[in-house]
Amino acid sequence: ETGVTQSPTHLIKTRGQQVTLRCSSQSGHNTVSWYQQALGQGPQFIFQYYREEENGRGNFPPRFSGLQFPNYSSELNVNALELDDSALYLCASSLRGVLGNTIYFGEGSWLTVV
Amino acid sequence: EDQVTQSPEALRLQEGESSSLNCSYTVSGLRGLFWYRQDPGKGPEFLFTLYSAGEEKEKERLKATLTKKESFLHITAPKPEDSATYLCAVVTQGGSEKLVFGKGTKLTVNP
Predict the structure, then answer these.
(1) B20: which strand partners?
(2) CA A48 to CA A33: how far, in whole Å?
(3) A54-92 b/e (C-beta count within 10 Å ≥ 16 → b)
(4) What are phi and psi of A15, to 5 degrees?
(5) For residue range B62-91, what is the model confidence (pLDDT) as tens digits?
(6) Per-residue pLDDT tens digits for A16-39
(7) Contact list, B51 vs chain A (CB under 8 Å)
(8) A110 vs B: CB within 8 A
(9) To probe the interface with B, which of A99, A101, A109, A112 has the most B CB atoms within 10 Å?
(10) From CA B60, how far away is CA B37, in angstroms rounded?
(11) Which of A4, A70, A111, B41 has a Cα-to-Cα distance from A39 of 20 to 30 A?
(12) Cα–chain-centroid distance for residue A29?
C-alpha cells in the first residue's frame, strides 16, 4: 500500500476525444510525476509538478498537460487522443529534494483509444 | 542522453535456481538507482534505492548491488511468487527528479 491513488482504473475513449486522469499523492509528498507505459516497455516520463508548478517535462507534445492542486493532488489531461496514446498511465509521488524518501507509484489508469 | 539497459529481456528459472538480473546505465551524474517490481496490470512496487558504488541492499530473497556502470539484482532460491517484471531506473543530477527506466526483465519462476 503506497498511499498513491489513481482514477479511473480503466477507460475507453475514441480517437480525437479528451481525457482527464487523477492522482492523489502520498500524505506529506509535495511532488507528483506522470509516466506513460506502453505494453512491454518501461515507463516514460511525461512531466512533474512541484508545488503546483511544472518542474520538468519529457518528450511529449503539448496536448499532454497537467495540474497540481494545493493539496498536491494532480490531474493529467490529454487532448485530441490518438491510437498510440493507449497505455498505462502511472502517477508517482515523492518529496522533492529528499531522494531517500523514495518514489512511490499508484496502480495506474489503463487508457484504451479506439 | 541518459540510458538504462536491462538484460536479459526475459528469464525463466526453476524454483530454487538462483540467478542475477543486470542493469547497465550511462548517465551524466547518478543521484540514485532504483529497482521496482511490477506485476501484470499493476503499478511498479518499490524494492530498493542505491546511491553509490559498492552499496548493497537486501530484502528477503533479493539483493541489489551497484558499481559505477551497472547494478545487479540477485535472486536467491526464487519461488513462483517472485515471478514479475523487474524494472531498473535512475535519477540523475540536475533538473527534475525524473526516473529514467529500462525496459525491464520479465522473470518467470516455475514450480
Answers:
(1) B74
(2) 4
(3) ebebbebeeebbbebeeebbbbbebeebeeebbbbbbbb
(4) -50, 135
(5) 999 999 999 999 999 999 999 999 999 998
(6) 999 999 999 988 888 999 999 999
(7) 99
(8) yes
(9) A99
(10) 14
(11) A4
(12) 15
